[in-house]
Write a structure and sequence with these properties.
Helix content of chain A: 55-70%
Strand content of chain A: 5-15%
Radius of gyration of chain A: 24 Å
Strand content of chain B: 15-25%
Radius of gyration of chain B: 35 Å
Structural class of chain A: alpha+beta
Order of helices and strands of chain A: HEHEHEEHEHHEHHH
Shape of chain A: elongated
CATH superfamily of the largest domain in chain A: Multidrug efflux transporter AcrB transmembrane domain
Number of domains of chain B: 3
Largest sheet of chain A: 4 strands, antiparallel
CATH class of the largest domain in chain B: Mainly Alpha
Number of domains of chain A: 2
Distance between the termini of chain B: 31 Å
Distance between the termini of chain A: 39 Å
Strand order of the largest sheet of chain A: 3-4-2-5
Structural class of chain B: alpha+beta
Low-confidence stretches of chain B: none
Helix content of chain B: 40-55%
Oligomer: heterodimer
Number of strands of chain B: 18
Low-confidence stretches of chain A: none
CATH superfamily of the largest domain in chain B: Multidrug efflux transporter AcrB transmembrane domain
CATH class of the largest domain in chain A: Mainly Alpha
Mean pLDDT of chain B: 88
CATH architecture of the largest domain in chain A: Up-down Bundle
Number of helices of chain B: 14
Mean pLDDT of chain A: 87
CATH topology of the largest domain in chain B: Multidrug efflux transporter AcrB transmembrane fold
Strand order of the largest sheet of chain B: 10-11-9-14-15
CATH topology of the largest domain in chain A: Multidrug efflux transporter AcrB transmembrane fold
Number of helices of chain A: 9
Largest interface: A-B, 74 and 75 residues
């Protein structure tokens, strides 16, 4: 079976300006949302606070839960329904308290059991993160993104020429900004697993880019005499296109499975991966390679 | 035997060994059957899958320095009295200062000599005389306070370990982190509140005499006599006037057991002192027959019984309307000893058993359905070669599980996600090679040459592509904590094992096909 007919040459480079315009628009939108509009919705790993996941045996609505939290003065908590509608499952998140926060989860448990009856309430998960720990985690999370970037930059620099690594890193930054931007726009929480997903995207997006780059390098070696660099790029991308699409497709299938079937705990993680795979596939074709073209056009 | 066959045997061996270690895990919750000769250990599940509690505690070690200073202050008072130094006040001041107020400025030299001799770790930082009172301020040396803090953390770790051991948690992990933190992993803890109370209770047991000479009512109104203070009964919030000085403390305990009063079915804790404790207890009780002796736990009065006669033998009981659970836990903390400084909970993550089960189930379903879809797709697209890639995929999962079991790595929910992701990404290496072989075939090469050229040309691409993901995974492992670390682990193992299955296993089978079975045409 052939996904892309052999010998097909798609003129990607001619469309690079459209692609750049689209990418710049997405990045501007992302950055605007991150810095000026909605900001980043940090989850409790990074913002601190208490999060309780609770399941009820009987149908309960958000208002009932909020009502139950009234007596303990926590009715300003974020209360969210999660999972399938007949799971009657909720996520209750309260911000960091100044007082000793270790008994907040106990207070919530007590209030819910008081309102709905002890045997009807199942506390499934309690996460409490204090300010010292959340600060640590935030620092570590961002440092890990930074170090992964550096490590990859060095590796590509070693394996390819500098302009290649610049193209790859640009594509990476592009992917990470847009993914975080989409999290910001949709108001989804950025938690530790999402950072893990971002790192995976970094690795994955590069994976795609490298396959294309390898082919470009190979074709450059083979090429003799005068040739048009942009058509060499088109050729290389076209030759590897079916692989790029196939791999993205199989990876997307499994990530979609995780997203739909993996449960609430890794829902956002799978979402980040899904966005990252799509954006990463796009960027390896439309960002990384055109950057090479622009970098090379100066000297020739 | 030629090298090719030997290679095949080695590959088979690797996979069989992987299967060997992975096998126990396939039995899930059931026991591994009797006759199984291989390893019996299943893959360890993280707290997020098996349920349990993760706690990060901070030992407030400054408090240990403060309480040390308080006890130095009380020592110093006694020493000054015996040296006839007239002091007005001796008090510790947070975090590491000690103030002495002298009535006679002339006593300064005597005090200086006394401190230099008996308390060399105190350094004078300031002295001034105002209205006939000389105030001398001492500061504890950095070295001494650092060593007190260090000791407090070490002792807290030991005490908490004892408490957890006696509480009965299977395979707990209690490790220090940084300067003053303790990380606890308590699998299967179903009552997080009880566990937190048990771990966090300072559990300082003190015996203080009740001040019967002064009026309690006056004291409550604010006229507290010197050397006494108003405390409150634990259950009734009733005030009681106590002497400041503790006549005995819990560090002289030998044992503590839960007992149940036959008359009311009420649980209490029976304690016995060591020899020194028994001697002091006998002396205190014989000197104070008729007055009341209050028993305090972390500053709250549990009970204050009247001393009817001198008690020898070093036995006493603590009552206080406990539930059986409370009494049991109290006995545990008394046996394990008190914490040298209070602890704060910095982070708590508790997963109930129902959610853990749910996550395992959902993770398993994701692997099965995601895997099945990819397997079907590969067969449809690449036919025989797709089947081969599928074989590689299955071997891959077996190897990941085998390696996890072999190295006692912990499987978490993100770890399962890592396996699912590997399923999608592992076929990538095969796809790269296959697409390359296709191209080589199109150039008119024979199957044998096409396979050879395909692998040769694809090798660097496959390595480069996987090494970059590996870099990201290794960084994640370094910086990640808990469940996220599990993701880095399975992702890294998955990358390595997929390189093996694609570049070694699949290659061997394909070469066997084209070299030995002399396949004329390959469908790819």
């Amino acid at each position: 079976m052939e996904l892309i007919r052999p010998g097909t040459q798609i003129e990607f480079m001619k469309k690079k300006n459209i692609a750049f315009a689209l990418s710049i628009a997405l990045i501007v939108l992302s950055l605007t949302s991150i810095f000026f509009l909605k900001g980043i919705n940090y989850g409790i790993d990074f913002a601190g606070g208490t999060e309780v996941q609770v399941a009820f045996t009987d149908p309960v609505n958000t208002g009932d839960v909020r009502g139950a939290m009234d007596p303990i003065g926590l009715n300003n908590s974020i209360i969210q329904r999660i999972g399938a509608p007949d799971d009657h499952e909720f996520l209750i998140r309260t911000p960091m308290m100044n007082e000793a926060s270790d008994d907040i989860s106990q207070k919530i448990k007590g209030a819910l059991e008081g309102a709905f009856g002890g045997e009807k309430v199942d506390i499934r998960r309690i996460d409490m993160v204090g300010s010292a720990v959340s600060k640590d985690l935030k620092q570590k999370g961002f440092l890990s993104l930074f170090y992964a970037g550096i490590g990859i930059l060095i590796y590509i620099w070693w394996r390819f020429e500098f302009k290649f690594s610049l193209g790859a890193i640009l594509a990476l930054i592009h992917d990470v900004i847009i993914t975080v931007g989409i999290f910001s726009l949709t108001g989804k929480e950025i938690n530790l697993p999402v950072i893990a997903a971002l790192l995976t995207i970094v690795g994955y997006s590069l994976n795609d880019t490298i396959v294309v780059f390898d082919r470009i390098r190979e074709n450059l070696k083979k090429a003799s005499g005068s040739f048009e660099f942009s058509s060499l790029l088109d050729n290389s991308i076209s030759q590897t296109l079916s692989r790029t699409l196939l791999t993205s497709f199989t990876t997307l299938i499994v990530v979609l499975c995780l997203y739909l079937l993996g449960g609430s705990v890794i829902h956002d993680f799978a979402f980040a991966l899904m966005v990252g795979i799509i954006v990463g596939t796009y960027s390896s074709i439309f960002i990384a390679s055109p950057t090479l073209l622009i970098m090379s056009s100066g000297k020739k | 035997m030629n090298i090719f066959k030997l290679k095949g045997l080695l590959i088979l061996l690797v996979i069989v060994v992987g299967l060997f270690f992975a096998a126990p895990t396939f039995f899930g919750g059931k026991e591994v059957p009797e006759g199984w000769i291989g390893p019996k250990e299943k893959i360890k599940l993280g707290l997020d899958l098996q349920g349990g509690m993760h706690l990060v505690l901070k030992v407030v070690s400054e408090k240990a320095v403060e309480s040390r200073l308080t006890s130095i202050a009380s020592d110093l008072k006694g020493q000054m009295i015996s040296k006839r130094i007239h002091y007005k006040k001796v008090a510790s001041q947070s975090p590491d200062l000690l103030l002495v107020e002298l009535r006679e400025p002339d006593d300064y030299d005597k005090l200086d000599a006394l401190v230099l001799d008996g308390h060399p770790y105190l350094k004078e930082v300031d002295s001034s005389t105002k209205e006939g009172i000389t105030t001398v301020t001492y500061k504890m040396t950095e070295q001494e306070s650092a060593s007190i803090r260090e000791q407090a953390v070490a002792q807290a770790l030991e005490t908490i370990r004892n408490r957890i051991d006696q509480y009965g948690v299977s395979e707990p992990s209690i490790i220090p982190q940084g300067k003053d933190r303790i990380v606890l992993q308590l699998p299967g803890v179903t009552d997080p509140e009880r566990a937190k109370k048990l771990i966090g209770k300072t559990a300082i047991l003190e015996f203080k005499l009740v001040d019967e000479q002064h009026s309690l009512d006056d004291a409550v109104r604010g006229d507290v006599p010197a050397g006494s203070y108003v405390a409150y009964m634990k259950d009734a919030q009733k005030p009681i006037l106590l002497k400041d000085k503790a006549v005995m403390t819990g560090d002289l305990l030998d044992d503590a057991r839960v007992k149940i009063k036959t008359t009311y079915n009420e649980p209490y804790v029976a304690i016995s002192f060591n020899r020194e404790g028994a001697r002091i207890f006998e002396r205190v009780t014989s000197e104070n027959v008729g007055s009341r002796l209050a028993i305090l736990l972390d500053g709250k009065v549990s009970s204050a019984p009247v001393i009817r006669e001198a008690i020898s033998g070093g036995k006493a009981i603590i009552e206080g309307r406990f539930t059986l659970e409370e009494a049991t836990d109290l006995a545990i903390v008394l046996r394990a000893g008190s914490l040298p400084a209070p602890v704060e909970i910095l982070e708590e993550r508790t997963v109930g058993p129902s959610l853990g089960q749910d996550s395992i189930h959902k993770g398993f379903v994701s692997i099965m359905i995601g895997g099945a879809l990819v397997i079907i797709f590969m067969v449809v697209y690449y036919r025989f070669f797709g089947l081969l890639a599928d074989l590689a995929l299955v071997c891959n999962i077996v190897l990941i599980l085998g390696i996890l079991a072999l190295f006692h790595a912990v499987l978490t929910l993100p770890g399962i996600a890592g396996i699912v992701l590997t399923i999608g990404m592992a076929v990538d290496a095969n796809v790269i090679v296959y697409e390359r072989i296709k191209e080589e075939l199109r150039l008119g090469r024979t199957p044998k040459m096409a396979v050879e050229a395909g692998y040769k040309n694809a090798l660097s691409t496959v390595l480069d592509a996987n090494i970059t993901t590996l870099i990201a995974a290794v960084v994640l492992f370094q910086f990640g904590t808990g469940p996220v670390r599990g993701f880095a682990v399975t992702l890294s193992i998955g990358i390595l094992s997929s390189l093996f299955t694609v570049l070694v296993l699949c290659r061997w089978i394909i070469e066997w096909q084209v070299n030995y079975k002399k396949v004329e045409r390959i469908s790819i």
